[in-house]
Write a structure and sequence with these properties.
Blueprint (H helix, E strand, L loop, with lengths): L2 H20 L2 E7 L5 H15 L3 E7 L2 H13 L6 E4 L19 H15 L10 E14 H7 L10 H15 L5 E3 L3 H8 L18 H16 L4 H4 L11 H5 L5 E5 L3 H7 L6 E3 L13 E8 L6 H12 L1 H11 L6 H6 L8 H13 L5 H7 L4 H16 L5 H21 L1
Parallel strand pairs: 1-2, 1-3, 5-6
Antiparallel strand pairs: 3-8, 4-6, 4-7, 4-8
Helix pairs in contact: 2-13, 5-6, 7-8, 7-17, 11-15, 17-18
Length: 425
């Protein structure tokens, strides 16, 4: 072979070697984590890329606040990612990609994610497949059992009321000098974990928001009274304003909170951060006059319709939503499954401590106690608007910036204005 032919052959070989890299599609996935699920997802994506070298997935991890506040703005401007993990399923449904035309087996998705697909669809749409649940969550109490034992106070029973738990937690806190007897996440969704049990429906008979009903008022009065009596501390909700989220994770893991109303997504984190510092448990949702229901929820991974690579997005989603891969994700992340087939078979929670495994069982059992109103609220298009208005205005009342009666009027005004603004678009 002469030099000219050798050079030509070498150039051709180099070009052929470069072709896969030139043809590679890069997708961006916006992600947030409560515990270790980001690490698990990174591992699963690395395996996907090894089997699919023509697709590169960049995992952009952001704070939870950015998912609620920044991502909707990006999506509205057409500058969103290709895939995103979201919690405002109804509110962001207009930005979701319908994966159905690109999926290998749409029937698999309908069979295993069917009940939750409606949460991600726009009103009236009965066929779109926007994504899948990275986990099903349930609101409920996390209890520092050690503090109750130190105080000599028995844990309230399975059908205990909110008042029973508040009284017990305050007694415990007074005896052991814990500064926060009862802590609630400062979140509209968590507030509705109380409001639904009081009979709140959120949605009127005409399908429009009707946030201020008797159940809502009972729940709001309880929160206000607890802050006034020292059952809840203004230091938590009062440390932020507006619609800002405030959890009590740090306070709980530092053994300052006997009773923390949060949810199942905290299990993996507390299993790691609390360790053997104290014994903690998940307790059944306390009962109100209407039911003993908390709020369902969870995060979904959805495709974004502005993507330039819908077929590649669907390939990633098909892989992550497959039973084998998703079961591993749930098991390693310690999540309640949002997949019917996996839920029926059960999840092997690898590496979970006995108390984490027990907490997962309690939350899993609570799914059957969820009231139909809670499911409707979670999938409601305007639920996030109501959640934000409720927590913002109730926060003002608790901080002394007005009465509850004034808060109710402001909530109704806020919701009406924001619904009207959304419907203009």
């Amino acid at each position: 072979m002469n030099r000219r032919h050798w050079i030509a052959g070498a150039c051709l070989a180099a070009l052929m070697t470069a072709l896969p890299a030139m043809a590679q599609t890069t997708l961006r996935m916006t992600w947030y984590s409560d515990g270790n699920e980001g690490e698990v997802m990174k591992d699963l994506l690395a395996r996907f890329e090894a089997k699919n070298p023509d697709i590169k997935v960049v995992l952009d991890t952001v704070p939870f606040k950015a998912i609620n506040e920044n991502l909707p703005v990006q999506l509205a401007a057409g500058q969103g990612p290709d895939i995103a993990r979201v919690v405002d399923l109804g509110g962001l449904s207009g930005f979701a990609l319908d994966l159905r035309p690109h999926l290998k087996n749409a029937a698999y998705w309908e069979e295993n994610f069917g009940p939750f697909l409606d949460w991600m669809r726009q009103p009236g749409n009965t066929s779109a497949i926007p994504g899948f649940m990275t986990q099903l969550t349930v609101t409920g109490p996390l209890v520092n059992k050690t503090l109750f034992e130190q105080a000599g106070v028995p844990l309230p029973g399975a059908k205990a009321t909110w008042e029973d738990w508040a009284k017990a937690a305050k007694t415990v806190a007074d005896k052991v000098k814990a500064p926060y007897p009862v802590a609630f996440d400062r979140s509209g969704h968590r507030f509705y974990g109380l409001a639904v049990s009081q009979g709140s429906k959120m949605i009127g008979a005409d399908g429009n928001p009707a946030p201020i009903d008797d159940g809502f008022k009972r729940a709001a009065q309880m929160i206000a009274d607890w802050h006034s009596s020292g059952v809840m501390s203004k230091e938590l909700w009062g440390s932020v304003s507006g619609t800002a989220y405030r959890g009590a994770n740090e306070e709980f893991k530092n053994a300052q909170v006997p009773f923390y109303l949060s949810g199942s997504w905290q299990i993996a984190q507390f299993d790691k951060t609390v360790g053997n510092a104290f014994d903690w448990i998940a307790a059944p949702t306390p009962c109100g006059p209407a039911n003993c229901s908390g709020m369902p929820g969870g995060a979904a991974l959805i495709g974004i319709k502005t993507t330039k690579s819908p077929a590649q997005v669907a390939r990633v989603m098909d892989y992550l939503a497959s039973e084998e891969v998703l079961s591993e994700f749930y098991g390693r992340a310690l999540f309640v499954p949002g997949h019917i087939g996996i839920a029926r078979k059960g999840v092997a929670y690898k590496g979970a401590s006995p108390q984490a495994a027990a907490a997962l069982k309690v939350f899993g059992d609570q799914v059957s106690a969820l009231d139909p109103a809670a499911y409707r609220i979670q999938g409601y298009t305007y639920s996030r608007i109501v959640f934000n208005a409720a927590i913002s205005r109730l926060g003002q009342a608790i901080a002394g910036e007005g009465t509850l009666a004034e808060a109710y009027k402001r909530i109704e005004t806020d919701v009406a204005q924001q619904v009207a603004e959304r419907n203009k678009k």
